[in-house]
Amino acid sequence: MGKFEIETDDLVYNPSDDTFLLAENLEIKEGMSVLEIGTGSGLVSMYASLLTDDVTATDINYNALELAEKNFKLNNIDNIKLKFGDLFEPVKNEKFDVILFNTPYLPTDSDDIINDDLNYAFDGGLDGRKVIDRFIEEAPNHLNDKGIIQMIQSSLSDNDKTLNMFDRNGFIAEIAQSERFFFEEIVLINAYKI
Ligand SMILES: C[S@@+](CC[C@H](N)C(=O)[O-])C[C@H]1O[C@@H](n2cnc3c(N)ncnc32)[C@H](O)[C@@H]1O
Fold it and tell me: Which of 16, 132, 168, 169 is deepest in the core (most CB within 10 A)?
């Protein structure tokens, strides 16, 4: 897909417009350490691995890790570490220069929940912020000085709240890119630690 050959899986998020909004706008320089939370098919981390040798990718969906591993092999990529778990739990004592997350940002009520691991890909709880809020609270503890967070969300999940949370936590944050769709705008937010 794009630069890479990618297999998909019914239980894992298929790369989509939001994936490419992140993958094609990475703020990574050679030598930087990079963490991608929620790697899905592994595609964003594969783009990151073209820019630096130090990439760690996680997911809470074990099917995603199996698929990402397959996709790394398919593309002869052997420099991405894969870890299983919830947000920063798999990298408890580690810090990174760049943290990436295409978040599960869709407002989801009980009728929209699907009963398998694919649910992790989109379920942002009633206001779309169930995972986003936890991510923004925990991410600063895992970021080196002058580090960068790049995350994707939707106008349906309150972009201003994200920008304000970063502001209060000592970041300069901005909407760096956006793409308008029929019922929402998908945004890439870059937050720079000052
Ligand atoms: C919108 S999908 C993005 C997948 C892939 N990065 C992409 O851009 O195509 C969100 C991903 O985050 C994962 N995820 C959701 N909640 C998570 C959590 N608490 N900790 C780690 N990963 C999580 C999902 O399993 C899913 O793979």
Answer: 132
Q: Is the CB of 118 under 6 A from ligand 1?
A: no
Cα of 171 from ligand 1 centre, angstroms: 23
Number of structural domains (the chain) is 1
Mean pLDDT of 161-180: 97
Asked if residue 6 belongs to a domain, the reply is no
Q: How far is the CA of 18 from the centre of ligand 1 (A)?
A: 12
Domain with 25, as residue range(s), is 17-193
pTM above 0.90, yes or no: yes
